[in-house]
Amino acid sequence: MFTKIKKGYNEYPNAFKVLTLATFIDMLGTFLLFPFFSRYIINHFGVGMIEVGYLFSIFAVGNIFGSTIGGALADKYGRRRMILIGLIVSGISSILMGLVNDLNVFYLLAGFLGLIGNFGGPARQAMVADLLPQEKQAEGFGILRVSFNLSAVIGPILGGFLASQSYMFLFIMDAVSSIITAIIVYSVIPETKPQVLKDKPEESVMKTMIGYKEVLKDWKFMLFLAVSAITVLVYMQMNSTLSVFLWKVYMFPDASFGLLLSMNAIIVVIFQFWITRKVSKYAPMKIMAFGTIFLMIGFSMYGFISEPYLFFVAMAIITIGEMIVYPTGQSAAATFAPGDKRGRYMAVLGFQWAIPNLFGALGAGLIMRYIGPNWVWYIAGILSLSAIIGYWLLHGITKELFSKEKEQIKEPLIEYTVSSIE
Questions:
Q1: Which of 34, 191, 330, 400 is the most buried (most CB within 10 A)?
Q2: Which element (helix H / strand E) includes 143?
Q3: Domain region containing 241
Q4: How do the pLDDT tens digits run along the chain, 422 residues long?
Q5: What is the tally of structural domains in the chain?
Q6: 8 A C-beta contact, residue 227 and residue 394
């Protein structure tokens, strides 16, 4: 299996391989910090899960505006520039957040980080679609997830050790990883933005922003986005609520939770590429419905189980679901998007994460306090079931789009220049 993975990976352009390495380094810093973020806020500021929810909501508001602006600017000025801005701001903000002792100032920093730090998110996804042909995009996003999760193998384990010494180490290492990634992107990765043909006038910044109207009028894509947001609302509880739930209800320690997330990542690293190749030949909406079944089972289990070994079983089931759902979803979104609007489509795709973050952690905190901790996972199961039905209905609506021959997919007004970077 590993020989096939290596052979398949060699089929990709060098710029994509460097982007994969840069993603690993950047996400390593993120996974040092993020799994312990909720616990840090509760311990450092002496607050509860509801206040953590407020923080995630503030970050999400900034994220929505940041990805919207960043996606448009990525189509206007290029992917590389937006990625660099996001990385530099993210690194500086991490250090400042580690030094702040006032919760209100921390909230302000979170909003700023969500706004400017997320400029590079849509650009990075658009860059993958720029670099790879349509038939390779699902696998390409799968490889990026392997890189992402390889960092998640190392990050939580190392983060658990550093957190036991000082949480400030987590913020410093996150900043260092962002700066190293920025250096790699600046030094090695060229611009991949599709070039506007000479007879097509260049858009102004305002016209580029107004171009979001065309994305929002794509009602099939918006329905897809709405259903995907439901699965994200469930999935985000793994990194925002689960650690606090297991700690408060079962006294599950930091180190053990780090191992739980690392197991999730190890499974992705080993099996993601193989699974993506197996499922990419099937209709994407059917595949996403199938994958969401695993999310429904895994998250629901946390409402019924109490043995630590079963926490790991539930996480393994969740991992199968995420390996099926998310690379398929990213590839499907790229198919919806014409080449000259990929940055904006990917920015709107980011709303599937940003909008649930507006209220997901806060809602979970309210449910835990006023209804009962286990109800977070009962509701997660119900929401997953609704998403399964939604994806199945979307299959009928989008069948024609995804059954078209790849060469028939229209990308007017642009020509690509990335072949020179292979």
A1: 330
A2: helix 134-165
A3: 14-195+205-408
A4: 455 555 555 678 888 888 888 888 888 887 788 767 777 888 888 888 788 878 878 877 887 788 788 877 887 777 888 888 888 888 888 888 888 888 888 888 888 887 887 777 778 877 887 888 777 777 777 788 788 778 877 887 788 778 777 888 888 888 898 899 899 888 888 887 766 555 555 555 566 666 677 777 888 889 999 999 999 999 989 877 898 899 889 988 877 887 888 888 888 888 888 888 888 788 889 999 999 999 999 999 999 999 999 999 999 999 999 999 988 887 787 777 766 676 677 777 777 877 887 788 888 888 998 999 999 999 999 999 999 999 999 998 887 777 654 444 444 333 333 333 33
A5: 1
A6: yes
Tokens 């992107």 belong to which residue?
Answer: 185
Classify each residue of 330-349 as buried b or exposed e, where b means 16 or more C-beta atoms within 10 Å of its C-beta.
bbbbbbbbbbbbbbbbbbbb
Give residue for tokens 């998250």. 299
